[in-house]
Amino acid sequence: MIELRGRSEIAQIRAPLKKTVFRLEDHPEVSGSFQLVSTGTPRGFTPPLLSFSQDIDNWEGDLIIGPANMSYLKSGDVIGITADGRFLDALWRGNGTTNTLLLTERCDNYCLMCSQPPRDRSDDWLLDQAFEVISLMPENADEIGLSGGEPTLYGSRFIELVAHVRSTLPVTALHILSNGRRFSDMSFASEYARSSGDGTMVGIPIYGAEYSLHDYVVQAAGAFDETVDGILNLGELGQSIEIRVVLHALTAPHIVDIARYIARNLPFVDQVALMGLEMMGLARHNLNRLWIEPIDYLEDLAEATQILDSHGIRTYIYNHQLCTLHPDIWEFAVKSISDWKNEYDPVCSDCDVVADCGGFFHSAKYGSSSSIFPVLADGTPKFGSRSIPTVVSDSKIWSRRKIPLVPVEASENGQIDDDH
Amino acid sequence: MGYERKRLSGVSVDEGIDYDMIEVVRFDSRVTSLSSVRKGIYRMSGTLGLICREDGSDFVVESNAELNQLEIVTLMRHVNDYQLRESISQETAAIRDAVLAAALIRITREHDFK
Amino acid sequence: MTQREIAEQSVPKSVNWLPYRFERLSSDEVLVSNIAGEWVLLDGQQFDQLATLSFADDDLVKLLLANHILITEDDRVSGRLLSLKLATRIRQLPELTGLHIFVVTLRCDHSCEYCQVSRKNSNSTEHDMSWDDAARALDIVFSSPSTNLKIEFQGGESLLNFELIKRVVVEAKRRNIDGSRNLSFVIASNLVPLNEEILTFALEHSIYFSTSIDGPEELHNSNRSRPGRNSYQLATDGIASIRKTLGDDYVSALMTTTERSLDQPEAIIDEYVRLGFNEVFLRFLSPYGHAVKTRAISRYGNRQWMDFYQRGLKYIIELNRSGTEVVEVLASIYLRKLLVNDCGGYVDLTTPTGAGLGALVYNYDGDVYASDEGRMLREMGDDSFKLGSVRTHRYKDLILSERFLDVVEDSYAPSSPMCSDCALEPFCGSDPVFHHSTQGDVTGFKPLSDFCERTMTLVPLLLRLYREDRFCRDLFTRWATR
C-alpha cells in the first residue's frame, strides 16, 4: 500500500513557497537528490532541494528531506508541497497504474457509497493545481484521470482544463469521472466535444433502470433523467463514454435490469464497468444499507455481463475476487486497477488462480466478504466447500475485517484512519 | 392486381343477409364504441358468423347460430379489450406522433435521399 | 446521516401511459409491448393495474418505467429514448433490396415433390437464362440503394448453367470495382453437378453454397427423388467436398418440411448435427402445392407443424444443454426481433413486406418477381406477383408500380385489421404472397391465417421458455445476437 501523502522529515524553508507543484528531476550535482521544476519561476524564488537521505550537508538554499514512506518517488513524478514545506502529495507518478487528479470535493450528487464524501466549500486551488500538474507531466505519460466531487461544476474552466490536457499531452489517455448531469445542457456538451479531441473518455455512473432507484442511490432528485440525457448528448456528439455501476445491496439485485436497460437504450457507449463496493468514505458509514455478499448476486452478475457482452458492449468487472465471480465471467474481471491498493488474504496463498486475481483493496480492512476461499482453475472450491478455512492471520501484516464482523488481531497501529 | 377479395365472414352492417339471426349480446353505445364491437366481431369471425346492428342506444350482436357460454364471454372480453385499446390510443396519440415524427426525421436526415 | 436524504425509493411519482399494445396469451398472461418492440409479460392482476393506472405494486411501476410503458409526469428523457430506439429499429428500411435471386435455369435432375418449377430435360437450353437478361438484371441489382448486395443463384438446378453463374459473378465484381457495395454470392444447389472447376471458381470468388437436406437419408430421398435414388448421398458428398476446398463455413443446408417430416423432428435434427451443421432451420410447411391448387385452407397441417416445431425446438435446447451447440434458425429470427432492437433481415418475416422491397427474383426468361413464391405461383398460372421484365423495366419501374405499391400498402401490418392492435406485431411481418395464395387477399383475414397463428403460437412459446429458464435466456440471447 503506497502512501500518497506524507510529512516531511525536515523542512528548512525560509519563506512560504511561491510555487507548490513541481516535477522531480535527478539533481545534476547532488547525487541521490531531486531538483524541483515548476511552471514559470517567480522572481526571487528558487525551489527547494528535495532529498530522501538525511546526509545533506552544506546546502545553502531551501531543503526538504521527504517522508520516508514516499521514497518511491522518482524522476519525472509530479508532487505538490504545502507552502510551508511540511507535507508532500504525490500527484502524478510514472510508475502508477492509475493517476487521478482530484479537482474538487464539491458535488451535486450525494451517493450513499461515495468514497470521496462531498464538501460544500470552494476549493478552486485544486483545479489550479491540476493545470500545473498537466503542464509538468512528461509528454509520454500513458494516462491521467480527472475526478472529484463533480468536475463539471467548474463549467467552462473544466472545459479549459480538458483542452489543456489535449494540447499539452496529445498522446496521453484522459479518463474523466463525472455524474454526467451537466452534459444534459447541449451547449456545454458541445463545448466539451470541441475540446475533448482523441483519447478522452468520460466515466458516468448509472444505478438503476428507472429514476427511483438511481435517484435514491445518488440522493438527488432528477439525477437519473439528467444523467441519461447527458449520456445521450455525448453519444450524439460522438464522445467516448464508459458507464459505471457500483454493486451493492441496492443495485446488485437489479443488475440484470440495469444491463438490459443499457443494452437497449445506451448501446453506443464504449464500455461498461461493473464495480465492487470500495469500503471508504460514506460506504463505511452506510454499510448496513449497502453490504451484500457477492455470492448472493453471483448468478445475476453473470447474466448481466453476458447480456452486455452479447450486445457487443465491452464489459469490465472491477474489485471482485475471482472466487466471488461465476467462472463464466472470469474473462471480464480486471486484475488490478491500482497498484497502491491491492492486497491478498492469507487464505489466498492456497488458491490456484491467485496470479490472475486482483485481490483486495486495502480498504477491505474495513470490511469485506467472509466467503473468500481458494479455487481451482475451473472455479470449484479447492477444499470442497465454501467455508472459511481456519487460518490465523499474522497480526503484523494487513488483515481484512470480514463481514459479518469476525474479531481480528489488532491492526497495524490500533486505529482506523481514512486512506486515500 | 388480378385477385378477388373473398369475404370469409358475414360481418356487415349495411347489407341485407338471408339468415335467421339470433341475438347474442347487447352493448350500450354510450360506453362502447361501434368500432370496438366490430373489431371484437372481426376477431371471432374465423369460426362464427356475427353481425352488428344498431337498435336505439344499443349495439346488438347477432349470430346465425347459437353461441355457447365461452364464446359469448370471449366476445365480450374482446370488445372490452378493444375499448381499452381505443382509450390507450387516444391518451397516447400525442406522444406517439411526436416519437414517430422524430424517428422519421432522423432516418431521413441520415439517409441523405437523392 | 445527511440533510439531503431522499426517502426510501418506494413512492414513485405520478405516472402515465406511453403508447403500448397488449395481448392476452392465456387466462393469466398478458403480453404488453411498446412502439420500440420492448415487452413485458404480466399476469392478469398486474395488467389490471396498468389498464386502470392504479398501482398497488411499486415494483410493477418500476418494471413498466424501465421498459418505457409508463412515463413519470416530469420525465425529461423517455420520449427522446423512444424515438432513438424506433429510429434504430427501422433504420435499415431505406436500404431496400439487398437480396437478388437469379433463376439461371429450370433444368434439373431431381423431381422433388414440393417443387413447382423444374423441367426434367437436362440438355435443352430453352429454359436457361440468357446473358443479355442476366446483364440487364445486374443493371437492376446495382440500381438498388442497398450497400449490401447478395446475389443468389437458384433454379431448377443452378449449377447446370454454371457458365452463366461465372459470367454474372465476374461482371458483378467488375461493376463493383470501387468497392462501394458489399457483394456476396450464394449458389443454391443439390450439389450433384459439383466438380473441381466449380470448387476452384467458388474458392477464388468466396462463393457460398446452400443445399437441401430434408433429414435422414430415407426421408430426404423420398422427398427428393432423382434417377438412382441417391440424392442424399450426392448431397452429402458435395458438402464434404465444399468443406474440404473452401472450409466449413462455406456450405449451409436448408430443409423443406413435408407431411412426412412432421413426426420425426429429432431425427432430422440429429442428421444435421451428424453432418456437422451448427444450425437447423425448422421451416414452415410449404403451402405451395396441394393447398394452392385447391385453394383450401388447411388448419390441420399448421397445427401438426407447430407440434413438430415445438418438439424440434425443445430437442435442440436439450442438445445445447448437454454441450452440443446448435441454433434453431426460425427461433433466432423471432428472438432477434424480441431481444435486440433490430427488425432483422429475414425477408419473409418483416413489415412492410420483404417481397420486392427486400428481395427480387429474376426468372430465366427475364421476368421479375417480388419473391420466389411469387415465381412459383406463376408456374401455376397466377402472375399476381410478377412485377415486370428486365427487358422493359428498370428498378424504379418495378418497385414503384401502382400494382406493387398497392400490395405493399394493403399488407402493411400496422394498418391491417387485427395487426394494428396486436402486441406481437413488432415481432411479426407481412406476407402478401402467402395470404394471396391461401386466402385470395394480400391483406389476409388473420382469424383464419396460418401465418398469424404461427407467430401467435411461437412467440409466447419462446417468451415462456425465456422467462422460466436461465439457461434458455443465455442461449436465446446468444442466438438473437449472433
Descriptors for this entry?
heterotrimer; A: alpha/beta; TIM Barrel; eight-stranded mixed β-sheet; seven-stranded parallel β-sheet; globular; B: 114 residues; 2 helices; 3 strands; 47% helix
Q: Tell me roughly what share of residues is in helical segments of chain C.
A: 40-55%
Counting helices, strands and paired strands, the structural category of chain C is alpha/beta
Helical content of chain B stands at 40-55%
**Mind telling me which CATH architecture of the largest domain in chain C this is?**
Alpha-Beta Barrel
- Structural class, judged by helices and strands of chain B? alpha+beta
**What radius of gyration of chain B results from the CA coordinates?**
19 Å
Relevant CATH superfamily of the largest domain in chain C: Aldolase class I
Indicate the mean pLDDT of chain C.
Answer: 92
Form type of chain B = elongated
Tell me what you see in this structure.
The complex is a heterotrimer of chains A (420), B (114) and C (482). Chain A is an alpha/beta fold and 420 residues long. Chain A folds into 2 domains: 5-92, no CATH class; 100-399, TIM Barrel (Alpha-Beta Barrel). Helix content of chain A is 22%, strand content 19%. Chain A has helices at residues 124-136, 156-168, 186-196, 211-218, 223-236, 255-265, 282-285, 287-290, 298-310; strands at 5-7, 10-12, 21-26, 33-37, 49-51, 63-65, 78-81, 87-92, 100-102, 143-147, 173-177, 200-205, 240-247, 271-276, 314-318, 342-343, 360-361, 368-369, 402-403. In chain A, the strands form 4 sheets. Chain A has an 8-stranded mixed β-sheet, with helices on one face. Chain A has a 7-stranded parallel β-sheet with strand order 9-10-11-12-13-14-15, with helices on one face. A two-stranded antiparallel ribbon of chain A has the order 16-17. In chain A, helix 6 links the parallel strand 13 and strand 14. In chain A, helix 2 runs parallel beside helix 3 (186-196) and helix 6 (255-265) runs parallel beside helix 9. Chain B has 114 residues and is α+β, with helices and mostly antiparallel strands. Chain B is 47% helix and 17% strand. A 3-stranded antiparallel β-sheet of chain B has the order 1-3-2, with helices on one face. In chain B, helix 1 (34-44) crosses helix 2. Chain B is elongated and about 60 Å long. Chain B starts with 21 loop residues before the first strand and ends with a helix. By secondary structure, chain C is α/β, with parallel strands linked by helices. Chain C is built from 18 helices and 17 strands. In chain C, the strands form 5 sheets. Chain C has an 8-stranded mixed β-sheet with strand order 12-10-9-8-6-15-16-17, sandwiched between helices. In chain C, strands 2-3-4 form a 3-stranded antiparallel β-sheet. In chain C, a hairpin with a 2-residue loop joins strand 2 and strand 3 (29-34). Chain C is globular. The B-C interface holds B 1-6, 8-9, 39, 42-47, 77, 81-82, 84-85, 88-89, 91-92, 95-96, 98-100, 102-103, 106-107, 110-111, 113 and C 16-22, 24, 35, 51, 71, 79-80, 82-84, 86-87, 90-91, 93-94, 382-384, 403, 406-407, 417-418, 421, 436, 439-442, 445, 447-448.
